[in-house]
């Protein structure tokens, strides 16, 4: 096989597995919708706990939305490799001639399209309840867009490490949350800075750079982790 | 030289050599800590701003430094174990994690005790180094939890090695992103251009403590690795011989 064929088979592998996962998600819309409901509910917990004062909600809005988004991503990450592990598809991926890292990237892409992107789309609706001005909402969506890409990729490493373990959910959170803190800091703080009228370029550059970094490394780490946890 | 390193990677050799090395690390380490404690508490002059409260740095700074060194030890040996499939270096990584977590906790506790008289609060989220130490502690917890969750030793070794490496890439990023906050922490005094900005009477006990802590860490690490090796090799001939001969 020459290099051209290899790159074609790699890209068709990424696209193929992403298409398959999207189709599966389409057949079971609950898997996509539940994390979104969870996101809205966690966001609703804060006004109930903090009190209805609009000023306070306006201040805490970016932080609350970001924390809720982070938790919602974790919820959906847990099942990233689970069904493939249980029905043996993962074994097929391991022996496939297409590089495992490409397949992992395809699965992560589908995961982001079904969890990160919907969050970005839904977030303005929840943001309205936090009195967030429309000018700020745009930045919220932008930071979530960049941040959830990194979260999906970073989370896929954790999901691959914990697949097939008992009590994997709590463990996955324990592994991923400390690593996800830079994303949370820059995501939430950038939105807060916009709300108070400060410059935001630095935060956005960081989120973009982090997304590129995870995109370059995470698929290989995920592939290595899948090989280890599936033997 | 290479022959020596290869021999060291074999568990029985390591087990013997470590026993010889431990006192050579532990005794000077404890002596340095003894000197550092005495000199730090009684000989070092009082700080003109912080009074006697500054003396906690003699525990705080070495602990904080060791929390990083232990993570580096863990990540590097996990990487070596993953790439060259050396079982001993996985044992080193496993042994380093609880020690690192303990030093991280010590750095957090002393930092918090120092913060009470200095900042008027036990915990200050605005301080980047305290916050990144806390995240460091969570990273250690995650590593140990993953190791504990997998029964098969060889699988646990490699899975946690992947996590340690991913964590090692992230540690500088976490530190930088936390630094992005406004800082209450006093700036670096030890490592900066033109030598440390510290009275020699305060500095030497601190350097003695740092070196002493590092040596004791080395001794504790070797002791833990010995125990780990013994447990991992419990079904081998040499351990059986060792136990039957009554040696250690």
Strand content of chain A: under 5%
Low-confidence stretches of chain A: none
**Secondary-structure element sequence of chain A?**
HHHHHHHHH
Quick one: overall form of chain B? globular
| Percent helix range of chain A | over 70%
Class by SSE composition of chain A: mainly alpha
Biggest sheet details of chain A: none
Largest interface (C-beta under 8 Å): A-B, 28 and 26 residues
Order of helices and strands of chain B: HHHHHHHH
Query: Over the alpha carbons, how many angstroms does the gyration radius of chain A reach?
Result: 18 Å
Number of domain units of chain B: 1
Largest beta-sheet details of chain B:
none
Distance between the termini of chain B: 27 Å
Shape annotation of chain A: globular
Mean pLDDT of chain A: 89
Terminal residue distance of chain A: 28 Å
For the record, the count of structural domains of chain A works out to 1
Q: In which range does the helix fraction of chain B lie? A: over 70%
Number of helices of chain A: 9
What is the strand tally of chain A?
0
Written overview of the protein:
The complex is a heterodimer of chains A (231) and B (248). Chain A has nine helices and no strands. In chain A, 87% of the residues lie in helices and 0% in strands. Chain A has one domain. Chain A is globular and about 55 Å long. With 231 residues, chain A is mainly α. The longest helix of chain A has 30 residues, at 100-129. Chain B has 248 residues and is mostly helical. Chain B has one domain (21-185, 207-244). Chain B is 77% helix and 0% strand. Chain B is built from eight helices and no strands. Chain B has helices spanning 2-8, 11-43, 57-84, 87-119, 128-149, 153-179, 200-232, 237-244. In chain B, helix 5 (128-149) packs antiparallel against helix 6. The two termini of chain B are 27 Å apart. The mean pLDDT of chain B is 86. The chains are: A mainly alpha (231), B mainly alpha (248). Chain A binds chain B through residues 154, 157, 161-162, 165-168, 171, 174-175, 177-179, 181-182, 185-186, 189, 206, 210, 217, 221, 224-225, 228-229, 231, and chain B through 135, 138-139, 141-142, 145-146, 149-150, 155, 158-159, 162-163, 165-167, 169-170, 173-174, 176-178, 180-181.
């Amino acid at each position: 096989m020459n290099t051209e064929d290899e790159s074609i088979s790699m890209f068709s592998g990424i696209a193929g597995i992403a298409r398959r996962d999207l189709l599966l998600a389409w057949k079971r819309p609950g898997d996509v919708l539940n994390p979104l409901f969870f996101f809205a509910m966690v966001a609703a917990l804060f006004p109930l706990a903090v009190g209805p004062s609009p000023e306070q909600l306006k201040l805490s809005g970016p932080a609350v939305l970001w924390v809720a988004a982070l938790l919602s991503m974790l919820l959906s990450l847990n099942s990233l490799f689970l069904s493939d592990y249980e029905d043996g598809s993962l074994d097929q991926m391991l022996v496939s001639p297409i590089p495992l890292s490409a397949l992992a990237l395809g699965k992560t892409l589908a995961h982001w399209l079904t969890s990160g992107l919907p969050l970005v789309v839904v977030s303005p609706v929840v943001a309205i309840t936090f009195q967030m001005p429309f000018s700020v909402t745009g930045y919220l969506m932008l930071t979530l867009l960049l941040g959830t890409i990194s979260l999906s990729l970073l989370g896929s490493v954790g999901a691959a490490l914990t697949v097939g373990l008992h009590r994997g959910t709590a463990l996955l959170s324990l592994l991923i949350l400390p690593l996800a803190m830079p994303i949370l800091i820059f995501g939430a703080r950038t939105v807060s800075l916009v709300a108070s009228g400060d410059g935001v370029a630095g935060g956005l550059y960081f989120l973009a750079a982090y997304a590129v970094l995870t995109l370059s490394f995470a698929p290989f780490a995920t592939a290595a982790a899948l090989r280890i946890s599936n033997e | 030289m290479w022959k020596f390193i290869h021999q060291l990677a074999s568990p029985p050799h390591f087990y013997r050599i470590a026993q010889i090395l431990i006192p050579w690390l532990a005794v000077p380490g404890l002596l340095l800590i003894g000197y550092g404690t005495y000199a730090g508490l009684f000989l070092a002059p009082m700080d003109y701003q912080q009074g006697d409260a500054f003396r906690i740095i003699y525990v705080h700074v070495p602990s904080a430094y060791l929390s990083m060194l232990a993570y580096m030890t863990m990540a590097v040996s996990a990487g070596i174990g993953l790439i060259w499939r050396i079982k001993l270096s996985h044992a080193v990584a496993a042994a380093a994690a609880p020690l690192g977590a303990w030093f991280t906790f010590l750095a957090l506790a002393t930092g918090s005790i120092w913060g009470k008289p200095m900042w008027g609060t036990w915990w200050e989220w605005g301080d980047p180094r305290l916050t990144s130490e806390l995240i460091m502690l969570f990273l250690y917890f995650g590593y140990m939890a993953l190791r504990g969750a997998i029964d098969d030793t060889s699988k646990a070794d490699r899975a946690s090695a992947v996590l340690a490496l991913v964590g090692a890439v992230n540690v500088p990023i976490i530190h930088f992103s936390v630094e992005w906050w406004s800082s209450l922490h006093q700036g670096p005094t030890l490592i900066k251009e033109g030598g440390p900005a510290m009275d020699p009477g305060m500095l030497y006990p601190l350097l003695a403590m740092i070196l002493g802590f590092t040596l004791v860490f080395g001794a504790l690490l070797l002791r833990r690795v010995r125990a780990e090796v013994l447990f991992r090799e419990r079904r081998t001939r040499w351990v059986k011989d060792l136990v039957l001969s009554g040696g250690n």
